[in-house]
Design brief:
The protein is elongated, with a radius of gyration of 37 Å. The longest helix is centred in the C-terminal third of the chain and has 24 residues. The protein has an eight-stranded mixed β-sheet with strand order 1-7-6-5-2-3-4-8, sandwiched between helices. Strands 15, 16, 19, 20, 21, 22 and 23 form a seven-stranded parallel β-sheet that branches. Strands 11-10-12-13-9-14 form a six-stranded parallel β-sheet, covered by helices on one side. It is α/β, with parallel strands linked by helices. Helix 31 links the parallel strand 22 and strand 23.
Amino acid sequence: MSSKFFNNKIGNTLFDKLKGIASEMATFDRFLAVVGFFRSSGYFKLRKELGDISEIKILVGINIDDIFRKHNKALLMLADEDKAKEIYQNEFKEDIINAQYAPEIEEGILQMCEDLVSGRLQMRIHATKNLHAKFYLCLPQNHSEHSDGWIIMGSSNISDSGLGIKQPPQYELNVAMKDFDDVKYCSDEFWTLWNEAIPLTAEDIDNYKKKTYLGCQPTPYELYIKVLIDTFGDQVEDDFSIQLPDGVKDLKYQKDAVIQGYQMLMQHNGLFLADVVGLGKTMIATMIAKRFIEANGKNTNVLVVYPPALEENWKNTFKLFGIYKKAQFITNGSLSKILEGKDQYKDKEEFDLVIVDEAHGFRSDSSGKYDELQRICKSPCINMGLLRNIQKKVMLLSATPLNNRPDDLQNQLLLFQNSQSCTIDGIPNLKAFFSPLILDYNKLMRERDKKDVTSEVDKIYEQIRGKVIDKVTVRRTRNNILNDSDYRADINSQGIKFPKILPPNELEYIMDKNTSARFYETLKQLTDGKSEENPEGEGLSYARYRAVEFLKPEYRSKYKNAVHIGQTLAGIYRVHMVKRLESSFYSFKKSLATLLRITTDMIKMFDENKVIIAPDLKVKDLQAKDIELDQIIELAVEKGYLVEDIVYEADAFEDKFLEMLRHDQEVLERLNKDWERENEDPKFDLFRHELESELLDEEINPSKKMVLFSESVDTLTYLYNRLTEELGRTDVLMVTASNRNRLVKNIKENFDANSEVKENRYNIIITSDVLAEGVNLHRSNVIVNYDSPWNATRLMQRIGRVNRIGSVADNIYNYMFYPSKQGDSEIQLYKNALVKLQGFHSAFGEDAQIYSREEIVKQFKLFDNNIKDSIDKKIALLREVRELYNRDRKLYHKIKALPMKSRVMRNTGKHSGKSVIFVSSNVKTEFYLATSAGIEVLDFLDAVKYLKAKPEEQPVPFSNEVEHYKHVNNALEKYTSEYVEAADSSSINRTDLDKSSLEANKFLRTIEQITTDSELKSQCVLLRGYITEGIYAQLPRFLKALSREYKNDRVRMKQDEYKIQEKIGELVNEYQTLNVAQKHDKLDISDPQIIISETFA
């Protein structure tokens, strides 16, 4: 006996059952249905099988549970006919958006509308009861005990899934009965419900259709504007205005930066504010902060992090805008005070917004200050303000974020993003995106001495720029502002001038034959040390700084990363010595003598069998105060170390260490002796000539003021003495870290164009990089780089001092000194030296990244052009859609409300047979170009070239529809395979987890297995979550180091469980943040949706 039940397995679906009844029941004339929800696409497929019956009635329930949750309205409200119809209309629109994009589906939807008009189909909506029943009556004209009739009842709705058409079928359970009493009972129920329900008229359905793409035909221009509105989002309608303090210029480009930056802050929890130096980043950041405080409420707290030189500027700007009391200010080397609760700083959880100036100083995730900042930025907000933020907002200010290595950029992004839950469109996993690019970049850097890698490096940065950085960066150059007619008119009307920065003016000082030979032989000795990479090296090994590296293993174990410490210190000193050689012969001779003395002193310690090691000196911090490295070394013994911690016997070291010291001593004695014979200074001679002939010439330098930079205070002292004593100049001001604060008034009055008081007592300022940031020197338009910086970042920072709002000169001139290279061998030697130095990189300020002279010039030229075109075009497009918004608000809102899947056919005389498709989901928007040859991804600006249209252009009737549908569905398939399926497998294929993270997770899992302590288990689960999500950089490294102590020895780990628990507890406290459950469930990727499509006839 066959069962009355069926479960939607293939061949036994609701669709099959209804199809069978329609073909076998000779008297079938009426189809009555009650359904929870209804899909027009399902109706169309079913209608074909129902045949030529006279009556189809469908009663649709509305899911009122959801409605009440959303609207919190009383049940009776839905008896309101208009409200019920509005809810059904939304479901109808949703149905059409989610339906497959195919001609037969559209045909079915249109057929349903026709059936309603003809009266063949009648529909009503039932809104006063929770209507969960689904049943279907198949009846003759007059149903009686003597005629056929069927009732089907169960879980299936009229949809592809419910009918069992969708593959694989959804599990449903239904029962089919034909007993007269059963059918009669359900028929009576149907009519009761039908009479309570609200009729849907043909007019209603026609109106609903007009709100979908099937009843709406936009023009090409409307589709073009729709894309701009969707792309620029809230920036178009954001009418932000701020009451500016007296004396602050109201600049349109700054206001637009505030709008763009605030939207990024809300969407991504952070941004790079990277307008080139001198455009007012501090002002823009302060306005964004003020806007955030006003939006988030009175309990908002802001933390401002900056280099020491910028403190006064930040505090004054916050006071000016009236938000000083909402902020705390801290220098970038003092973040530990917040973590340790010192100096009345608030707890890290109390801050809602963190502003980091000169953020490129936090680009190395191995530095202590990066870890401190990341822990502050990732801690949750405890005072949930009006914006209900749990996660902090972070603003990173830097004029040069695009001038770092790929991993530096990744590290800075990870201050406000988590790797695995990245908010950036199209990047579900940040580290998985960066990992292959970092590998490619490092490989290219190793090949720089063998081939020109410029174009390949550019391609890597293009990817990073296009896919990541542009989406979280506000960056305009002066050219971008001048190229926009509105901005240009605005700054001209306010009397603001942007000087043109001329390419570097290279001054080559000519050395005589003997000096040249001495210079290049010395350069070789400084850089050609013996190492694994350079086994034939004969130059200095800087052994004096590598003592911990050559301790025997039993002594070395107390120093973490002993080899790294030794090689880093040696690398720092190697760079330092080459810089001193290029800075001035005077400063180099001093360093050479010091290095010989301290090397000899260490050999004496071996002779006396008492070798002192003090590797924990904070070299960078002391250097930032302009203390020379030679002086820092002399301070070591005064640091108060315990003798037993720093004194070793000679046999505690490997034998080769003393040999290296003696080798260095021989090389240094030879070099010192050779340099004692050098009495010439061709570099100063050239500088003196340029000073007297060109640098202060009124034709190029109308103010007759000049700024000279050198990294060496010894060189500055040497120059000051020669300028004042030999040349008799009394207008030279020398500024270093030791006297900067004392000279603020003199600097401002003599060199700041914005100063109310203007003096001319000083016309030449000679300074270290202590004045490379946070100060205005723009009465001058001439910069001299006495020792040229080794990267373009530093050069741009220096130029930014004279290229500021308020500059009056037409051009900015900058001069760089280089030693002459008379022969090919010298050119090659210089190149080899640079390559060796480039191979060394640590968190030692910007200059650990070293560029050749040619690369600096190339990068310099790119600074104001490398993203000029795309920024210019985006500004113009945003301007175009804003103008429409302001001019014709009605048309703007009509276009904004265009339904999903809107489409147009165009005949422009070009692009024949091509389609542009705009697809989106909650993780990615993408443009595609479809042709007969296949599908390719289009950049937004390239898509706009195809879509751009004039208001008067009209669409043409659709032709070659088969090709159009094929194009759109191919684009959807490509999107699904690249984003939806890839994201689904991302949790299995974790290419982003580095070895440290994998080892740390393994260690934590082992602890979970061996412990019975529930708190320790939950702490391990929590830390594994942090690591898997990619929240912190140094957490996995600490756990890896702890893991290495136990070498997977479970017995020892069990014995030390209390000790391990203590350390794990400390890490949980230090790295407390939101766990995934608190923040959000893992983001499910929504089905991709067609926003618009456009085909060219």
